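Ticket #4471: complex job returned nothing on first submit. Input attached below:
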Amino acid sequence: MTETNGWTTTDHDEQVEAELLERFWDELASDVESPQVAQLDPELATLSRRLHLDAVTDDPSHESLARLSLRIDAGLSDAVNWRAGASRPWRRAWPLWRPRSAAAVLMAAALTSMLLLAGIMQYRGEDGAISAAEVLRAARAAAVPTHEASFERTEVDAIADAQELATFHVRTPHRVPDEFAAYEVVHQRWPYADEEVHADFVLVRYRTPEGHWLEIWQGFTAPYLSFQTLAPEDRTGLLSVRGKEAAWIEGRPLDHSGTWDPEAQTTLGILEGYEGGSPRFTVLASDALSVEDLVGIAESLQ
Amino acid sequence: MADGLGSRSALLEQLDDRELAGEAVADPDAFRLLYERHVRTVFRFCKRRLGDTSAAEDATSEVFIKAWAGLSSFRGGSFTAWLIVIARHTVADFHRRRRPTAALDEIREPADGSPGPEASAVEAGERAMLRNALAELSEDQRLVLELQLAGWRGPEIAEALNKTPAAVKMLRQRALRRLRAQLASAQGETQ
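Support reply: We reran it on our side without changes. The output follows.
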């Protein structure tokens, strides 16, 4: 038997009280503002109501959901690529889709309009291969209203042109190794209805004649950094670049069993700060450069 | 075109979590649907344990990336329970890694009509006291309350935690009594 504030409980009382609380919480969950459950300890009722009201503040805002959606899409895109075993981001192959999934996508693609075909062509890599995920993404972009969520993707000729589209200051790297030539510049934005929400980033890709690559992502997304949590401890760490906290990662998961491939790529992610509550990153990734190389390029960003 | 994708999408929506998880191993669309079903629950769970929005967003996205990466290790049972296990580990990692800084969006200026700085401070203090008291509960008691506060009903919690509905009711009742006692003690210390 226990006694608290005049209320005495036995095992039987506890069971009765547990049932009363079940009813009380069910009513709270049904948006009943002040449930009346007779015989329930009023202090427990008050505490339950207070917890319930406090929990309302834990609901994600529209802005949070928009930012999360952006990150998840970037993460999924990333994961699709490494599952497919793609060694370069622009050289995509059909991923490990089941035949019927692939068939559904192919059928959908075959029935598409010229508008959709134009959309898919935007995603075609240099060797002509495109992933199923890209087909789906392109299909969505062309076939459904933008509020059904798909990146707005704009290819531009130069970083300066991307600046006109971006909601943040886009920096230009001034120390990219000579063998790397600019390959493409793309601005992408999540079509969130509230223009005040930061949901865009600029991707600049470089490549060497041998096919090695360097990517620089700037803006409100952190692709590749999701792998930091999966990296072995000796393959990731923190350092400071231009006075900002930066995380480096050597390698990426080889497959979804978690096997780590330390040679796959090197990534450096810098948290530039927050704008309107949104974290803004600069992320550099390459399959040929070291952490030190990437730090050098990051320090040359102006 | 739209019909082709639409029917695939409609088909996926009819699947339960376990079936969707099976599809999601090879289909990002299926995983997207799982994400949409559970993102609010995972976010609320992370927010309650971490205390600020920014960290909760980081943790939530990490939970789903880990879930996506580890789908092949999902062996059936409750998908939500599996997700919560990942969330618990992720939040624990965050506590180990985080530094004691306030998230920027937690210290923004109050909007018109909201409590002033002093009232906000009192409210924040009470909320912190509540979170500290929750942290003192046993893991099972805390989980039951947190899942309840994330919007789950008793039977759902029982399935996710592999317990009987009666056991969940008792855990909640004891959690609330213990919480009340801890809050009374904490308030006594501050007076």
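Confidence is low (pLDDT under 50) at residues 1-6, 99-117 of chain B. Closing as resolved unless it happens again.
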